[in-house]
Design brief:
Its cofactor is FAD. The chain is an alpha/beta fold. It contains 16 helices and 20 strands. 30% of the residues lie in helices and 16% in strands. The strands form 5 sheets. Strands 1, 2, 3, 4, 5, 6, 17 and 18 form an 8-stranded mixed beta sheet that branches. Helix 14 runs parallel beside helix 16. The longest helix is centred in the last third of the chain and has 21 residues. It starts with 7 loop residues before the first strand and ends in a 9-residue tail after the last strand. The mean pLDDT is 96. The protein binds ligand NA7.
Length: 549
C-alpha cells in the first residue's frame, strides 16, 4: 500500500467498463488501494452511454464477456448478440459477484492529471473539485469515449430533437409516427436505422460512405443448450481459444491465400462464411484478403452480389451496395457492421437514403436540413450516428501532463507515440488499454482488456515488489514500437481507406495506424518478451530533475 490519506491511492483507474473493472478486481486482490472513476451513473462503460434503439454488441456470445472467476457459470445470455440493456444487466451481475461498486466513484469525470516530479505521484483532479494523489494511473477509457459531432452549419438553429447516438436519452425517445433523419451509417447508424425504420412515419438516411454490412445471423439462445455447453467445458475452450486468434474470436483466418482456390471453391468458401454469420466473412476469410487487392475484390464482389439482391429499388441498390467498379473502399478496411434487416428496411416506401458525397448537407435549418442542391427536408428528430474521435480521443480529452509539463494531447498532436500500446514516454506509472497501437480495432473488448490488463497488473506488481518508485517507457523503445506498428499496417490494405482505424474520420487528426495489425498472438508474445527481459524498453526510477538526485 503506497497511499497515505483518504484521497491517496495506489491506483486510480479511469472508466467503469470491462477494462477498468478488470483492473480494479485484480489490483485489489493484490492488496492495492484502488478507485475507479467514471462519468456515468452506472457501471458498463460504453454500454451505459450507447443506449440508442437497437444498440447491441457485434461479437458472439460467449466471446463478449469476462472469462474470469467462473462468472460465466451463473449468467445466461438470451441472444447470440446481446443488446445494450442485457449488457447493462450483466455488469450489475458482475458487480454483485465481485463486489466492485464500493470502489467506484460514479457521476464523476477525471478532468486533469499531472505528474509531480517531487513525489513521483500523480495528482488527479475530478469534476467534483476533489483531487486524488495516486502512485499509478490507469486509463481504461475504451476506444469510443469521445463522440464526434460534426460541425454542421446552422446546427444551433434546429428546433427539433437532435442527439448523438452515444448520448441518446436513457429513457429513449418516442419515434413512432415521427419524421426522422439518421446521419451516418457506421455500426450505430445501421443498428438504429433497422430498429426504427419500421416504427417511424418517415426515415431519411444520410449516408456518406456505404457500410459493407454482414449478416449478423442473430438468434435466441436456449438456456438448456447453453447450460450443456458450459458443462461440457465449451465456454472455457472458447475463452482459451480467443486468446490465440488474430482478432480474439472463436474463428481465425484460413491458412491459405485466395488465389490458391478456384473461383468455384472461393464461392463455396464465401457461402460458408456468410451463412455462419458474425464476422466470419471478415476475419475467418483468406489470410491475404486484407493484404491483396485482387483477393479482396473477390470478397467485395461476393458481398455486393448478395447485398444487391436484397434491395428492390435500383437507385438505392447503387447507393447502398455499389458494384465493384464503383466501390468506395476495399472490403474490411473499415469495420463492417453486422445487420439483421438493414437492407430490407430500405424496401419500405417510407425510407429514403441520400448519398451525401453527391448531395452534401448545406445547413441545418429551424425545421430540418437544407442540402447543397437546394432541397429542404423537415424532421421531427435528427439522430447523429457520426461516430467517435476513436482510440485516442478519450485519452487526450483529459488534460494529462507528464514529467516535463507537456500534455498528452500536445505530445500526440502530430502523431501517436506509445510503447507496446500501453504506455507513453514521459508519463511514468501511467498505463492505458484498448487504445492506440494495441490490437484494438479488429478485436473485441473483453479479450483485449484481459490480455493487456494482465500485463499491466503484472507490471504494477513488479514495480511495487521491486520497490521502484516509477517505471517509464524510453523514448527509443517508443520510437521503435511506433515504427513497428506503422510497418505492420503498411503491409495491409488499411492505409488506402479513410477510416477511424487510420484517424481519418476526424478533420485535422493525424493520419496514422492507430491499430496494431499483427494480431493478438504476436502482440501478446512481443509484450511478454519485453517483460521477460526485465521490462526491456522501460526505465525504472528515472531522475526527472527537480527534487530528485
Ligand atoms: P463510425 O463507424 O465511425 O460511423 C460514423 C458514421 O458517421 C460513418 O458512416 C461516417 O461516414 C458518418 N459521418 C461522420 N462524419 C460525418 C459527417 N460530417 N457528415 C456525414 N456523415 C458523417 O461510428 P459508429 O458509432 O457507427 O461505430 C463505431 C464503432 O462502434 C464501430 O466500429 C463498432 O466497433 C462499434 P464515413 O464512413 O466517415 O464517410
Amino acid at each position: 500500500n503506497t497511499s497515505s490519506g483518504s484521497n491517496s491511492l495506489d491506483v486510480l483507474i479511469v472508466g467503469a467498463g470491462f477494462g477498468g473493472l478488470y483492473q480494479l478486481h485484480y489490483l485489489r486482490k493484490l492488496g492495492f488501494h484502488c478507485k475507479v472513476v467514471d462519468n456515468a451513473s452506472e457501471l458498463g462503460g460504453i454500454w451505459y452511454w450507447n443506449c440508442y434503439p437497437g444498440a447491441r454488441v457485434d461479437s458472439d456470445i460467449p466471446l463478449y464477456e469476462y472469462s474470469i472467476e467462473d462468472l460465466y457459470k451463473d449468467w445466461t445470455w438470451s441472444e447470440r448478440f446481446p443488446s445494450w440493456s442485457e449488457l447493462r444487466r450483466y455488469f450489475a451481475y458482475v458487480d454483485k459477484k465481485l463486489d466492485l461498486s464500493k470502489d467506484v466513484i460514479l457521476n464523476t469525470g477525471v478532468v486533469s492529471a499531472d505528474f509531480d516530479t517531487k513525489t513521483s505521484r500523480w495528482n488527479v483532479h475530478l469534476s467534483t473539485g476533489e483531487t486524488y494523489d495516486t502512485k499509478f494511473f490507469v486509463l481504461c477509457t475504451g476506444f469510443a469515449a469521445k463522440r464526434h459531432e460534426p460541425n454542421f452549419k446552422g446546427r444551433e438553429k434546429y428546433e427539433g430533437i437532435c442527439h448523438h447516438t452515444a448520448v441518446y436519452p436513457q429513457e429513449g425517445i418516442d419515434v413512432k409516427g415521427k419524421k426522422v433523419a439518421v446521419i451516418g451509417t457506421g455500426a450505430s447508424g445501421v443498428q438504429c436505422i433497422q430498429e426504427i425504420g419500421p416504427e417511424v412515419s418517415h426515415l431519411t438516411v444520410l449516408q456518406r460512405t456505404p457500410n459493407l454490412c454482414l449478416p449478423m445471423c442473430q438468434k435466441k439462445l436456449d438456456p438448456k443448450t447453453e447450460a450443456t455447453e458450459k458443462e461440457n467445458g465449451n465456454y472455457q475452450k472458447i475463452f482459451d481459444y480467443r486468446r490465440d486468434t488474430f482478432g480474439g474470436f472463436h474463428f481465425d483466418f484460413a491458412k491459405r491465400d485466395g488465389n490458391e482456390d478456384t473461383a468455384e471453391q472461393q464461392r463455396e468458401f464465401y457461402e460458408k462464411l456468410w451463412n455462419g454469420g458474425g464476422f466470419r466473412f471478415w476475419l475467418a476469410t483468406y489470410q491475404d484478403c486484407l493484404f491483396d487487392k485482387s483477393v479482396n475484390d473477390t470478397a467485395y464482389a461476393f458481398w455486393a452480389e448478395k447485398t444487391r439482391a436484397r434491395i428492390n429499388d435500383p437507385v438505392k441498390k447503387d447507393i447502398l451496395a455499389p458494384l465493384l467498379e464503383k466501390q468506395h473502399h476495399t472490403f474490411g478496411t473499415k469495420r463492417p457492421s453486422l445487420e439483421q434487416r438493414y437492407y430490407e428496411v430500405y424496401n419500405q416506401d417510407n425510407v429514403d437514403v441520400i448519398p451525401l458525397k453527391e448531395t452534401p448537407i448545406d445547413t441545418f435549418t429551424e425545421k430540418g436540413i437544407k442540402f447543397k442542391d437546394g432541397k429542404e427536408l423537415d424532421f421531427d428528430i435528427i439522430i447523429l450516428a457520426t461516430g467517435f474521435d476513436s482510440v485516442t480521443g478519450g485519452l487526450v480529452q483529459i488534460d494529462i501532463k507528464g514529467t516535463d509539463g507537456v500534455s498528452l494531447a500536445d505530445k500526440w498532436s502530430k502523431g501517436t507515440w506509445t510503447n507496446l500500446g500501453m504506455t507513453t514516454a514521459g508519463f511514468p506509472n501511467m498505463f492505458f488499454l484498448y487504445g492506440p497501437q494495441g490490437p484494438t480495432a479488429f478485436a473485441n473488448g473483453p479479450t483485449i482488456v484481459e490480455l493487456q490488463g494482465d500485463w499491466i497488473v503484472r507490471c504494477i506488481k513488479y514495480v511495487h515488489e521491486h520497490n521502484h518508485e516509477t517505471i517509464d517507457a524510453t523514448a527509443e523503445a517508443e520510437a521503435l514500437w511506433t515504427k513497428h506498428v506503422a510497418e505492420l499496417c503498411d503491409k495491409t490494405l488499411f492505409p488506402g481507406t479513410d477510416s477511424w482505424y487510420m484517424g481519418a474520420n476526424i478533420p485535422g487528426k493525424p493520419r496514422e495506424s492507430l491499430n496494431y495489425a499483427g494480431g493478438i498472438p504476436r502482440y501478446v508474445r512481443e509484450c511478454r518478451e519485453k517483460e521477460d527481459k526485465g521490462y526491456e524498453g522501460f526505465i525504472f526510477d528515472k531522475s526527472y530533475g527537480i527534487g530528485k538526485g
